[in-house]
Design goal:
68% helix, flat
Length: 352
C-alpha cells in the first residue's frame, strides 16, 4: 500500500516532499499513540553509539531507501517494484553480515533472484529507458532498506520498539527535509489539477501506515531470524500484482511475469531450505552423559558413606562391634586414605 500511495502522491509532491510529509505526520502520531511506552528520560540519556545506530538506520531507511523507492514508484509499474522488493536481499545480506551459514545452494538461489530481476527489467534491451532506470532505483532502495532491517540487532537494548519507532520517524523526517532543501524542491504545494482533499488524505493514510510499518519492522526483526523473516517478504510481489491491476490497471508483461516467477521460486526455495535447516541448526544434539568420576576426597568423606562401605576397610578379627567414630578412624588409616593423604599425590588427587 505504501508503494501505491507513493505513486499517487507523486502527482502532487516531489519524492522528498511526500516522504518528509508522511514521516513527519507519522512521528506525531507515534508520539501520541505510544506516549505511555516512551520514556523520555531514557531517550535523553542514551549513549552516542546508540544515536549513531539510530541515525545510520534512519538514513538507510528513509533518506536513501524510501526516497528512492518513492521516486521509482512514479517511473515504473507497481508490480515490477514489488517483484524487486521480493528479492531475498535480507537473507543474502544476513549471510554476509551476521555469519549465517553459507552454502553453495543458497548462493545459487540468491544469484537466481538477480537473474530474475534482469529478466523483469528487460536489461537485454535499451539500458537508458525509464523503466530500467526506475527498476534500478528500486533495487538500490531495497538494498538500503534491507540493511536498515538487519540493523535492528545493532542496538544495545536501551530503547524499546515504541521509542525506536518514534525516533526513527522523527530523525527520518529531519533528514529528508534537509535532502529536499539541498535539492531545491521548495515548499510543498498542491497542484490545481489534483484534489487537495484526496492528496492530504493520502498523506494521512501513508503516515498511519508508516508508523505501523516501522514498528513492525523493529518488532519482528528483534524476534525472528533475519534469513527467515526476509524470505517472508516475498509476498510483496503478490500484493504488487493485485494492487497494480486494481488501482492503476497495470497488466504485467510476459517478461515481468517470467522474471517475477524466477524471483519468487528462488525465494521460496531459499525459504524451504532455511526452514528445513532451522530445526537441525536450532536443536542441539542429544548430549552424551558425562562419566561419573570419583570425588577427590572419596576416602575421607566418611560422613556421606554408609557403614557397610566403611566396614570393608576393617579387619575381620573383631571381637566386639565398634562405634561409627571408630569405623571412621579405621577407614582413615586404610590404604585408600593413606594414598589420598600422601602429599606427593596431592596434585594427582585434585585433578581426578
Amino acid at each position: 500500500m505504501l508503494t501505491v500511495l507513493s505513486r499517487y502522491l507523486g502527482g502532487g509532491f516531489t519524492p522528498a516532499q511526500q516522504v518528509y510529509l508522511r514521516s513527519g505526520l507519522a512521528f506525531f502520531i507515534a508520539i501520541v499513540v505510544f506516549s505511555r511506552w516512551i520514556r523520555w528520560r531514557t531517550v535523553l540519556r542514551i549513549r552516542a553509539r546508540e544515536w549513531c545506530v539510530i541515525v545510520g538506520r534512519t538514513v538507510l531507511l528513509y533518506v536513501v531507501g524510501t526516497t528512492l523507492f518513492s521516486k521509482a514508484a512514479g517511473m515504473t509499474a507497481v508490480s515490477d517494484i514489488s517483484f524487486i522488493a521480493a528479492l531475498p536481499l535480507v537473507s543474502a545480506l544476513g549471510m554476509l553480515f551476521r555469519s549465517v551459514r553459507v552454502s553453495a545452494v543458497r548462493i545459487i538461489f540468491v544469484g537466481g533472484s538477480g537473474v530474475g530481476v534482469a529478466i523483469l527489467s528487460g536489461f537485454s534491451g535499451s539500458a537508458t529507458s525509464s523503466l530500467n532506470y526506475g527498476n534500478l532505483l528500486a533495487l538500490v532502495a531495497v538494498v538500503a532498506m534491507s540493511l536498515s532491517y538487519l540493523g535492528r540487532d545493532w542496538h544495545d537494548g536501551t530503547l524499546n520498539n515504541h521509542e525506536l519507532t518514534a525516533l526513527t520517524l522523527g530523525v527520518g523526517a529531519v533528514g529528508v527535509v534537509l535532502t529536499s532543501v539541498v535539492q531545491g524542491d521548495g515548499l510543498p504545494h498542491v497542484a490545481s489539477h489534483v484534489s487537495a482533499v484526496m492528496l492530504w488524505g493520502a498523506v494521512g493514510l501513508a503516515g498511519v501506515l508508516s508508523v505501523l510499518n516501522v514498528f513492525l519492522i523493529n518488532y519482528s526483526f528483534e524476534r525472528v531470524d533475519p534469513v527467515l523473516s526476509g524470505n517472508m517478504l516475498t509476498v510483496e510481489c503478490v500484493w504488487g500484482l493485485l494492487f497494480g491491476l486494481l488501482f492503476f490497471g497495470q497488466v504485467p508483461t510476459w517478461s515481468g511475469i517470467a522474471g517475477g516467477t524466477v524471483i519468487v521460486l528462488c525465494a521460496l526455495a531459499l525459504n524451504l531450505l532455511d526452514g528445513r535447516g532451522a530445526p537441525a541448526d536450532g536443536v542441539p544434539e542429544d548430549p552424551v552423559p558425562a562419566p561419573i568420576l570419583p570425588q577427590p576426597e572419596f576416602a575421607l568423606s566418611t560422613v556421606e558413606q554408609s557403614s557397610p562401605v566403611l566396614r570393608m576397610y576393617l579387619s575381620d578379627d573383631r571381637e566386639e562391634p565398634r562405634s561409627q567414630r571408630e569405623e571412621e578412624l579405621a577407614a582413615s588409616h586404610s590404604w585408600i586414605g593413606a594414598w589420598v593423604n600422601d602429599p606427593a599425590k596431592g596434585q594427582q588427587s585434585a585433578a581426578s
